[in-house]
UniProtKB/TrEMBL annotation, chains A, B:
InterPro entries in UniProt: Cat_transpt
Location within or outside the cell: Cell membrane
Protein name, UniProt field: K+ transporter Trk
Coiled-coil blocks: none
Main location: membrane
Keyword Amino-acid biosynthesis: no
């Protein structure tokens, strides 16, 4: 898909200026397919309507593809589900028949995604149409609804949504699309089931859904509060107080994967950029269009840390014990991700900062660090360095987007294999701390 | 001890210029007691011989104190040791009598430390004396031997050991002192026992010792190779090829806690600084004078990640299975440490970069990031920003040195309590990746 996208974007009709080179077309195609949203050019002016349409199609198929694959992978992994795990799958996917098939899941995902995107597009259309005219409003409404639900972060405006930063309706519609697109299909199905059930006994949500919803809510609120404090006198300064709260909230929501922005990332304070890096690393929920190491991964490790600090042997949360398998997976995903990012950052620094004295280029460290985390988390926020990257730098970012897209899932899948060691070695402590 | 040191350093006789203020004296006293080595002033010129002597005493007692406490804590923790764990303690500390007491351990530590420091001081004295005269060489030889063994990183030269960067003897003596001081007393005792035994059956080293020795060796060699590549045309450029290898090796050895330098940290490449940050975070081995989250912690998580990726349920290394308790501790230590460092970095950025536009101060991000990790890992390397820190920044660094010194140990200790949960909740998976 990336290859086809690359070819389609290299056609002269795709760009307004000269045709895109291989690396730039590859970059844009990967960025769209992986729903990242980083751009080596301004798609609002640099690409023709045809080129933008290619991007839109890549986003839509990339987003749905990752949604489907990750959902199926998560279902496959649970070969030996616990009691409540089994209940979850049955409740979620059987829809009464008693047997869930891949094609049924596929259909459910496509129908859900289409309905949500259509509703979002309609909302945006109704909001925009009075200003831009009923005919011209349709295309951006559809583009942005798809881009938001798929957490792609591509925008037809060169400043993303800075122009709409005080528009409550646009902010609200985009936020809902982003959150729903990033929470994961399994959670959506679980919640839907929960509220549509007419049984007398109220079924509780699965542990996974509760963890995903709680983690997302906490991250959004804490993120917004932190951004509010750190940017109050900086990028938030020109806004009214409710406007500041809205902008901080929007930035907190989009930073974990969507990648839209209503504030100027390039002039944000260092501490805010560093904080956004952490949000970008965490990312969205598993089984969604979002990237990062995933909210549940970080939540699991956090619960483990806190439980152990309180002296409990097993990680407990919401009156459940997390399985050792979940914790091991989480540790592997985080460790490998950190190693990959570290390597990529070093490559980027060597490829981008070669020719200058190191004390002069200190400032670019944070920008490249930010860029690498944005690519890995398929977020797409940037301080503006994307267009200035060298060829080596662009290739590194392409690799990082690709690894960030599939890596955590592949690692979790690999970790799920159960290989019985022929020899069981004696246990022995090592000293820690 | 920190308080007494602060008072002693505030006396006018301690400094060559005006007396130190409370915060500066507190900073220096904490830095010395925690064997960190960060300085708000150049101790070679800013402090009198008396002031330097106070620093020396603080280093010696701080280093021995942390060595003793951490060794005793590690021994205490093993209330329910595994079979081979029990063997280790008995073999290591009983010295034939059959019962180890805290005072016996204390004595063994003091004797070992004194012998090693005396040997190091003698070596340095013999090397230096022909140049500086037999009388004047004694004081720096003792100071630097103590500073190296305690991994303190204080030097009587304003450029640390840059002047000796091509001196094989000085490099070798300091390196050995640093490595022995950072490997941990338990490992020293274990190795000593291994080679002094006259039994016909050769006893293997404990898993802990093998992990500690392997991790240290790998980190030193990989670190040196990385520094060699990244700094070849930069700070290493003026040296001969063997000189470059020696300098890279020395920098790799000192970065994980000692904090001496023979290269100019301030003009290093961004990628090198970032890489050194990782080494500083990892730190030395538990039960030593060194800081950081500890080599065995990172090694344990690495083994878990690799074992799980290969499909094994349990983390296996050297024909042993790591206990779940070790892994849980390691996860807690790393998670909490990262949270503390993140918080400190944000405070530092807010306290230090307040008055300037953010695009102008981008460059200071990496320097403050480096400074925070250096303080947390009680390393003492600096790009040179220590002296320019605001009061708030100095207090943050003091707090970070203190937390970095005791934190990992306290966390590991807290995690070791075993509290039996009254209710055992059902296990349930969450989805990861
Ligand atoms: K995105
Ligand atoms: K040190």
């Amino acid at each position: 898909m990336i290859a086809i996208g690359t070819l389609l974007l290299m056609v002269p009709a795709a760009s307004t200026g000269t045709s895109l080179g291989v690396i730039d077309a590859l970059f844009m195609s990967t960025s769209a397919s992986c729903v990242t949203g980083l751009s080596v050019l301004d798609i609002s002016h640099g690409l023709t309507r045809y080129g933008q349409f290619v991007i839109l199609v890549l986003i839509q198929f990339g987003g749905l593809g990752i949604l489907t694959i990750s959902t199926l992978v998560l279902m496959m992994v649970r070969k030996r589900p616990t009691l409540s795990g089994q209940a979850l799958i049955k409740d979620t996917f059987t829809y009464g028949e008693g047997k869930q098939t891949a094609s049924a899941v596929l259909k459910a995902i496509f129908v859900t995604a289409f309905c949500i995107e259509a509703a979002g597009a309609l909302g945006l259309y109704l909001r925009m149409a009075p200003e831009t005219g009923w005919g011209r409003a349709a295309y951006p409404a559809v583009f942005h609804a798809v881009s938001a639900f798929c957490n792609a972060g591509f925008s037809l405006y060169s400043d993303s949504f800075v122009g709409y930063r005080e528009d409550w309706a646009v902010n609200a519609i985009l936020s809902v699309l982003i959150i729903v697109g990033g929470i994961g299909f399994i959670v959506i199905a679980d919640v839907k089931k929960r509220f549509m059930e007419r049984k007398t006994v109220v079924r509780r949500l699965s542990l996974h859904s509760r963890v995903a919803l709680t983690a997302s809510a906490v991250l959004i609120l804490v993120g917004a509060a932190a951004i509010l404090v750190m940017e109050w006198n900086n990028t938030l300064a020109p806004l009214s107080v409710p406007g500041r709260i809205m902008a901080a909230l929007f930035q907190s929501i989009t930073a974990r994967t969507a990648g839209f922005n209503t504030l100027d990332i390039g002039i944000m304070a260092n501490e805010t950029l560093f904080f956004l890096c952490i949000l970008m690393f965490i990312g969205a929920c598993p089984g969604s269009c979002g990237g990062g190491v995933k909210t549940t991964t970080v939540f699991g490790l956090w619960v483990l840390g806190i439980s152990r600090l309180r002296g409990y042997t097993h990680p407990q949360v919401f009156r459940r014990t997390l399985t050792e398998a979940s914790i091991s997976k989480a540790t592997s995903v985080v460790m490998v991700s950190m190693a990959v990012i570290t390597l990529a950052i070093m490559v980027l620094m060597m490829s981008e900062l070669g020719g200058f004295s190191h004390t002069q280029t200190r400032g670019r460290f944070l920008e490249l660090f930010f860029e690498a985390l944005s690519a890995f988390g398929t977020v797409g926020l940037s301080t503006g360095v994307t267009e200035t990257l060298s060829e080596m730098g662009r290739i590194t970012i392409v690799a990082l987007m690709f690894i960030g897209r599939l890596g955590p899932m592949v690692i979790a899948l690999a970790v799920s294999r159960e290989r019985i060691s022929r020899v069981h070695y004696a246990e022995e402590n090592i000293m820690i701390g």
